[in-house]
């Protein structure tokens, strides 16, 4: 079946590369939809949507737009491309998208692609792909390829190989892949985990699966929790075991690598009335890069444990732990559905147990007191459990509690 693949780039500098990719798509029997995201004119390669069309899609007049600041121009062109892609997708006229370019072209393409749902084929070829691409990708499933050679002057033996391989990849996704589908969301449970809570997460998952549930676990890496909540809004999940809401601590610390990408982490499930079991996984520290990458004051004053040579884990202060608890309460209090907060009093991670580098009973007590003081919703119950977060008994309790909440939610609907 013929697929419709959008090709997004800046034609003022990448028109010949666009023609190459479009030709690859057509030779495979598919339709290429060329979108010129560059604000300036370039070689005469006909686009299905020229740069004036793109600007107009962002409610801008191109001749006036190009007089603006560069960042405003690029933001408008990204908005315009995104609007075109969304309109094509909504009309059933889009099966995949490939974008490519340098810093600017990558930014425009990636920003636009992020508007498409998780599970839709997306590919990016970028000259900056070997650097920090988190701002480009955020929490969406964009397949990224480093361009190796710069994309200037028309295709060459290196760029031709990279671009045609990427085109083949997105066509393969469009032909053989599938979107995220779930016919039984009421039996699908989202869960968060880190390596420090993996033992408990695995046991909870096994118990829930033996009860007929589908369990989808997300790494609490900032992107993971944000992707989970994006999918939650799509109606994929019927329950949440937020075993490892570590990203809230990163939001408070504001220097870690795992800060949430979407705003409002820990608020979506509550807004949707989804049953939740919340625990404390990884709330006593933040994650960063090398020791040398930390702020100088943290290097001197904080308790640091090197997870590996490239990954420093850094203990939160007591003030930060109290602030983390207050933020959790603020996000959870409006919840429309049942929330059960299970606090393992003997430790919240492998590192936070007695004898571990982040064992801090006084900090944990301050967190718990703050949380109890700030929670004010009748939908929320807090239970302290005499266990470690990775104890089998604690995992069993998490599993049985979420199943009980799911059963009550099901009964309320029937």
How does this structure look, described?
The protein is globular, with a radius of gyration of 24 Å. It has two domains: 4-176, Rossmann fold, CATH 3.40.50; 185-413, 3-Layer(aba) Sandwich (Rossmann fold). With 414 residues, it is α/β, with parallel strands linked by helices. It has 15 helices and 14 strands. Helix 1 crosses helix 7 (157-176), helix 2 (51-57) crosses helix 4 (70-90) and helix 4 (70-90) runs parallel beside helix 5 (103-113). The model has no long low-confidence stretch (mean pLDDT 95).
Brief account:
By secondary structure, the chain is of the alpha/beta class.
Summarize this structure as a short list of keywords or feature phrases.
Rossmann fold; 414 residues; alpha/beta; 5-stranded parallel beta sheet; 15 helices; 2 domains
Helix and strand run: EHEHHHEHEHEHEHEHEHHEEHEEHEHEH
Distance between the terminal alpha carbons, to the nearest Å? 42 Å
Task: Please indicate the count of domains.
Answer: 2
For the secondary structure, the number of strands is: 14
Strand content: 15-25%
Q: What is the CATH-assigned architecture of the largest domain?
A: 3-Layer(aba) Sandwich
Structural class given helices, strands, pairing? alpha/beta
């Amino acid at each position: 079946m013929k697929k419709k693949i959008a090709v997004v780039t800046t034609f003022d500098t990448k028109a010949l590369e666009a023609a190459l990719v479009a030709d690859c798509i057509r030779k495979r029997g598919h339709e290429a939809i060329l979108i010129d995201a560059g604000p300036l004119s370039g070689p005469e390669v006909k686009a299905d949507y020229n740069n004036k069309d793109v600007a107009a899609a962002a409610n801008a007049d191109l001749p006036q737009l190009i007089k603006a600041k560069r960042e405003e121009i690029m933001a408008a062109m990204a908005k315009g491309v995104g609007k075109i892609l969304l309109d094509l997708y909504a009309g059933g006229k889009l099966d995949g998208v490939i974008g490519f370019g340098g810093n600017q072209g990558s930014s425009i393409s990636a920003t636009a692609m992020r508007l498409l749902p998780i599970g839709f084929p997306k590919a990016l070829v970028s000259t900056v792909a070997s650097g920090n691409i988190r701002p480009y990708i955020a929490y969406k499933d964009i397949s990224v390829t480093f361009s190796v050679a710069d994309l200037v002057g028309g295709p060459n033996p290196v760029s031709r190989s990279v671009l045609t391989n990427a085109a083949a990849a997105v066509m393969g996704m469009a032909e053989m892949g599938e979107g995220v589908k779930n016919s039984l969301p009421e039996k699908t449970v989202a869960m968060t985990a880190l390596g420090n809570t993996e033992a408990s997460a695995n046991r909870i998952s096994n118990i829930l699966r033996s009860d007929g549930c589908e369990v989808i676990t997300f790494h609490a890496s900032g992107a993971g929790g944000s992707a989970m909540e994006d999918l939650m809004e799509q109606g994929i999940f019927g329950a949440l075991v937020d075993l490892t809401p570590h990203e809230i601590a990163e939001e408070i610390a504001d220097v870690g690598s795992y800060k949430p990408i979407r705003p409002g982490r820990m608020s979506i499930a509550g807004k949707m009335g989804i049953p939740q079991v919340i625990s404390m996984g990884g709330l006593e520290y933040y994650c960063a890069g090398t020791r040398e990458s930390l702020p100088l004051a943290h290097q001197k004053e904080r308790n640091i444990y090197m997870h590996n040579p490239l990954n420093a884990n850094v203990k939160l202060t007591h003030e930060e732990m109290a602030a983390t608890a207050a933020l959790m309460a603020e996000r959870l209090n409006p919840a429309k559905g049942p929330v059960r907060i299970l606090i393992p009093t003997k430790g919240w991670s492998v590192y936070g147990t007695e004898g571990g580098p982040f064992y801090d009973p006084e900090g944990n007590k301050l967190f718990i007191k703050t949380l109890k003081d700030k929670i004010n919703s009748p939908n929320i119950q807090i239970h302290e459990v005499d266990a470690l977060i990775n104890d089998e008994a604690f995992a069993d309790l998490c599993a049985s509690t979420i199943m009980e909440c799911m059963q009550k939610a099901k009964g309320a609907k029937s």
